[in-house]
Amino acid sequence: MTIHTGDYLLDHAKAWSRDGLGVALATVVQTWGSSPCPTGSQMVINAKAGFEGSVSGGCIEASVVSESLEALKSGAFEIAEYGVSKEMSFAAGLSCGGSVRVMLEVLDDALLAALSGPRPAVRIVDMRDGKWTVVRGEAAMGRLPADGDMIARAAKVLSTGRACIAEGCEGGDCFYQPLLAPYRMLVVGAVRIAQILAPMAAEVGFHVTVIDPRRAFSTDARFPETDMVREWPDKAVAKLGLDAQTALVALTHDAKPDDMALGLAVRSDAFYVGALGSKRTHASRVARLREAGYTEAEIGRIHAPVGLDIGARTPGEIAVSILAQVIAARNGRA
């Protein structure tokens, strides 16, 4: 399964490292049965027992933190196994009945730099001793030697976006971890819905940029942790670009800026295009776009009224419905 966590775990790790704290990385490398977090799920843990992320949804995090603290003290690499049995308590096992293997390693400067490097890439880890290499294209960099077969397998892993275990590493098992560029969400209109949507989208792995030339709307106080572009949408979207990992959501409810952005989006590779407005508003929008020369297929790409039909009325509810629809599109369900 492709994991969409964005860069927030690395951001926390970097901040802790700057503060002089040791940091450990915990990664789910294998699951059996019912497990709340799929292969590739991660946590970062600092030397004061602070942590971010999840490897089980809450069942084993306390144990993972405890073992990570030991790993930070010893510098040791470890594969820990957690499961459920009659003898195991909820504090140390998966209450859902599954089992999971978690890789624990010290997140030192070299590994942090490798994970923060250009993407896409694949990290290959020898599960016997923790040696790793990062493959970008045909090049590999790290202490683990990578032969042609390993590089070819890394390319396959990258094409699926799914972490996995495979043979290699001189006869031992290797863990292949895809390092993907984050999905992006361009939100046109620094309105109340955008204030709620932006942080939620960031939590599920989107790098969010809000676009609005209106200075009264696009203030840092209203969007303290979101990238802002204070330009008209036609210029901003052209600069930022629209690719197959980008969603565009038009929320100004103003024909001029919304149409600017939508016109570019429907002729791009963006995986999702949505626009706020009632059915009547969208009918007027469709007429304008037809008159401007857009085809029925292009206009038909616009999700409008935007969001899943959950009866949303408030800005918060609308934001939830939008994010749900975007996630569905990202996962091939819309």
From TrEMBL:
Entry superkingdom: Bacteria
Domain XdhC- CoxI: 16-83
Protein name (Swiss-Prot/TrEMBL): Xanthine dehydrogenase accessory factor
Lineage: Bacteria, Pseudomonadati, Pseudomonadota, Alphaproteobacteria, Rhodospirillales
Organism: Varunaivibrio sulfuroxidans
Domain XdhC Rossmann: 185-326
Gene3D superfamilies reported in the protein's UniProt record: NAD(P)-binding Rossmann-like Domain
One Pfam family of this chain: XdhC_C
InterPro entries the UniProt entry points to: MoCofactor_Util/Proc, XdhC_CoxI, XdhC_Rossmann_dom
